[in-house]
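Subject: Predicted fold for Stage 0 sporulation protein A homolog, 223 residues

User T.R. writes:
Posting the sequence so we have a shared reference for the thread.
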Amino acid sequence: MYKIFIVEDDITIAQSVRKHLEKWDYSVCVAQDFHNVMEEFVAFGPELVLLDILLPFYNGYHWCTEIRRNSRVPILFLSSASDNMNIVMAMNMGGDDFVEKPFDLNVLTAKIQALLRRTYSFQGQVNLLERNGAFLNLSDATLTYKNEKIELTKNDFKILKVLMENAGKIVKREELMQRLWESDTFIDDNTLTVNITRIRKKLEEADLRDFIKTKKGIGYLIE
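User M.O. replies:
I've generated the structure tokens; pasting them so everyone works from the same file.
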């Protein structure tokens, strides 16, 4: 079941599209907070975004740019601002297709199906984990903070993935070591400390301080 995220401030249009797509067995979420669209995007983890251009606070181009900083998820613009300049701008900003309002729901569905086929027939699902403004992209093992990408080693990525998946919970050192080396063979406990220290240095250089907290004698935590 593909997940579709609708960013549309016209409630009538948004709910009409949602109900129609749910009949096609799509899981649909409609944006509620137009100040914090990215938070809802990350929480829902969609495979496709339907995005209006004219929105409260920030326009669709802004949110398209924000999504593209962290994800390659397909974006289909829906807008009555369908002059050539807006269509070209939507594509240049990272959009994948454009549907003019008013539109036929069946035509929209066909566009969505075609876009999903093109996207996911050739690549796996793109997933993101987010905490405190940092985005961990599971598809390319990079961390993004304040629009800057932080390159990670294999172990850096594994550690952050486990901690972010368990955000708000303490992850014991033993569990991290097991996930890192996937072995029952004894690993020097200091090796994990060295790995954590290296990650913290990278995060601090990117102005991401106190991201990983130590619970002495137990493990580590991302709040």
